[in-house]
Amino acid sequence: MSPAPRARRPVAVVSFAQAHNVRREDERNEVEMLMPVVAEVFANIGITKDDVGFICSGSTDYLVGGPFSFVTALDAVGVWPPRPESHVEMDGAWALYEAWVLLQEGEVDAALVYSFGRSSPGNLAEIMALQLDPYTLAPLWPDPVSLAALQARALIDAGRATEADFAAVAARNRKAALANPKAQVAHDRTVEELLGEEYVVAPLRRHALPPITDGAAAVVLAAGDTARRWCERPAWITGIDHRIETHAPGARDLTTSPSTALAAERAGVGDGPVDLAEVHAPFASQEGIVLEALGLGGNGGAGGAGAGSNGSNGSNGSNGSNGSNGSNGSLVVNPSGGALAANPIMTAGLARIGEAATRIWSGDSNRAVAHATSGPCLQQNLVCVLDAAWEGA
Amino acid sequence: MLDTPIHLEYTFTPGIAQSRFLRGLAEGRFVGQRCPVCGKVYIPSRGSCPVDGVPTGEDVALSDTGIVTTYCVVNVPFAGQAIEIPYIAAQVLLDGANISFMGLIQGIPATDVRMGMRVQAVWVEPDELGPTLASVKYFTPTGEPDAPYETFEEYL
Amino acid sequence: MADRCAVIGVGQTHLKAKREDVSIPGLVREAAQRALADAELTFADIDAVVIGKAPDMFEGVMMPELSLAAALGAVGKPMMRVHTAGSVGGSTALVAAHLISSGIHRRVLTVAYEKQSDSDAMWALSVPQPFAAPLLAGAGGYFAPHIRAYMRRSGAPEHIGRMVAVKDRRNALKNPYAHLHLEDIDMKMVEESIMLWDPLRYLEACPSSDGAAAMVLAAADAVSGSYPPAWVHGMAMRSEPTMFAGRDQVNPQAGRDCAADVYRQAGITDPRADLDMAEVYVPFSWYEPMWLENLGFCPEGEGWKLTESGATALDGDIPWNASGGVLSSNPIGASGMLRFLEAAMQVRSQAGEHQVEGARRALGHAYGGGSQFFAMWVVGSDKP
Fold this sequence. Notes:
The complex is a heterotrimer.
Chain A lengths: L10 E8 L11 H14 L10 E5 L2 H4 L4 H5 L11 E4 L3 H13 L5 E9 L5 H6 L14 H14 L5 H14 L14 H5 L3 E3 L2 E2 L8 E10 H7 L4 E10 L13 H10 L8 E3 L5 H11 L37 E2 L4 H4 L6 H15 L4 E8 L5 E8 L6
Parallel strand pairs in A: 2-3, 2-4, 9-10, 9-11
Antiparallel strand pairs in A: 1-7, 1-8, 4-7, 5-6, 8-12, 11-12
Helix pairs in contact in A: 4-13, 7-11, 10-11
Chain B lengths: L15 H11 L3 E5 L6 E2 L15 E5 L2 E10 L12 E8 L6 E5 L12 E6 L12 E6 L7 H4 L4
Antiparallel strand pairs in B: 1-2, 1-3, 4-5, 4-7, 5-6, 7-8
Chain C lengths: L4 E8 L11 H16 L8 E5 L12 H4 L10 E4 L5 H14 L5 E9 L5 H5 L12 H17 L4 H14 L14 H6 L2 E4 L1 E2 L8 E10 L10 E10 L13 H14 L4 H4 L2 E3 L7 H8 L8 H7 L15 H4 L3 H16 L13 E8 L4 E8 L4
Helix pairs in contact in C: 3-13, 10-11
């Protein structure tokens, strides 16, 4: 395997917009959902579609229920005259990765990335089952909640987390979401209250599940001086990497996320202190696994400003810190409320990068980590390190 | 080989612009929308001008006459086909619209259909009208002279 | 400045109506292992995997790359899944090539496939949606009216489509991987085949195939294998909206722009003279003369004359689709990659019986959607 890839051209997230996350978009179609988001992501920095040299999107046909859903979605941008444009059948975070790769080459200075996900038109539990191995798993129609429950059970059985940990994660994320005007689910409830809820699939209670969300998001990436011109304090991507694991949940240790750990290493998460993390953990039970793999676990309840802190950041306190995060304990996790506040499929990962970037722009963070996941039980993971400073720039 | 049938149900949302188009059909008329930037009239509008990427806000009432810009004769059977073959699938450009859409041509032998032929919509009975394209039974020739090729060349 | 990217391994499966002998993982692995063998590498040498296919509904598997990770040796590596409609095989190769030319990876495996027999592609393309027109015409029904428009615009005589249908099927007889091997193909056979979407006859349309294609791409310092590499001289993608007022669907601007971009990078000023052959996505016979014009091989309106003159035949001055093309094999998601792959095989002199003698520079082309998504590359035997 080649040496760890490193960003050699400074590329930054310079604008972010997202739709109001809702349970069901009753009136608007995909194009009508996306149009204001794309307009806003340009207007934020005073540019137009003519200022970006590449467009990349992420979405999946099965949510919409018809082939080629990304094709009509392009009408929200207006790709005329013709544009260099591409699409991944993945979360928009991977579309951002594709755009970042292209920007590394130097021919293009800016790119639009967008994604959309409507979970409401169909039965999400059935649709997501079609993501599983078509020979051995899909015919059994396992739903994503049951698979996540298997994972949560493995954590508990391994003595690595408790149901109270899950409740604490849910409580903290949804309390943070009160400050996020685009959040779908936000409230201030105690761990004790949450533990009084019924199980959906034991050991997961209602609060540990993500909401079902219709949403859309867009990001503008820009390189070098273009980024500095459009943004006072660009969120430079100093490292970005993604890795996949084998598919079968039975062939993996579900209590860990080796693909996240490897991506984090390659992206250089441990090269400096991290003060903020936006992790894409749709189920409350998954946040601790991701944080640990990122090397950000074991920080106890030190979460600082913004997110509020009424529980441990990770559920793996016994693992100890690997030290990469420094010892000042100022890590803020999911100030947006994360995927527990809104989980538009195919969009929630891109939104994590956008949410982290906004904290760099505002000065609330100097070095942030954003994470996106895909597949059953955290099968595939992307890690993006955003920094207020570009070394040597 | 083993068949594993997959059955999924979806609730589709036509969107704001397309809903206006569909409600128009329920009243037996065509409603298009105009782009505020380029001024072109789209029917049906998906809500945006695909060129300018802006909402097509203004409704435009269109007549139910137009021309066949181009067409083919469908001779191939396939699952879910609603119409007996052979039939004419044509691109119909309504008068006043700047975009054609696919429509069925009847009331004329397949061999007599021409590019530029003037056609008019034939609607279902008033009590059968609904917010669906099925409200238009088909398009049929009006008998007017064909439109000269130059007048619709740019719509091919 | 972008790094140089080379094709160092190619592999394809035999293309057939039904590959019932293998599962989907078996199919993609077959192509991948052939590409690795060609490059004299193993999965362990690969840094990242980029996979592409057309709509998931063709097989009834959502985001199938997730369950294919192990079969493609991608575990612990970056894996991406591209979907840009019919052009996907081409754009998948381009996404992989950018991972090299950006300097991020040194060796990337790229794969595209379709296993249409596992589902009903015609059905998948025509899912009845409540607000859509009840008139379902299928893919040919979408393109046939544009073919009619081309015939009218260019004044092309009817037999041109039949000529392409015969030429590509004769080429396919020289390609052991091709799906259709029609020994007796001739003008009369095409003319007597059933009219599907008038003016398009059965033998003027592509078949429906199962199959996969794979390539190993490498940076200049990671070239391996016994065959010389095919160097990427230029690559580009362009998209335009499906429909808008005044759109030219016969000669789309996105195709012209994409070609101009890729020629600029490759230093090509006269494609007919500067290229030795082209593998172009021609799913319906009439798209050869249409794309000849769109890609600048001749002035507008004269594509059919080039076809009629025999220039695009295997022994012509600019052979098109020496492999037999999409008209002879159409595993939808892989069809575009096969064009890119065949172009690479030609400049590596490994095309066997359908080799264009002395081919040193070739175009690979794919398009999709309503003739709105384009992906192209130019590969050459010389390192640029």
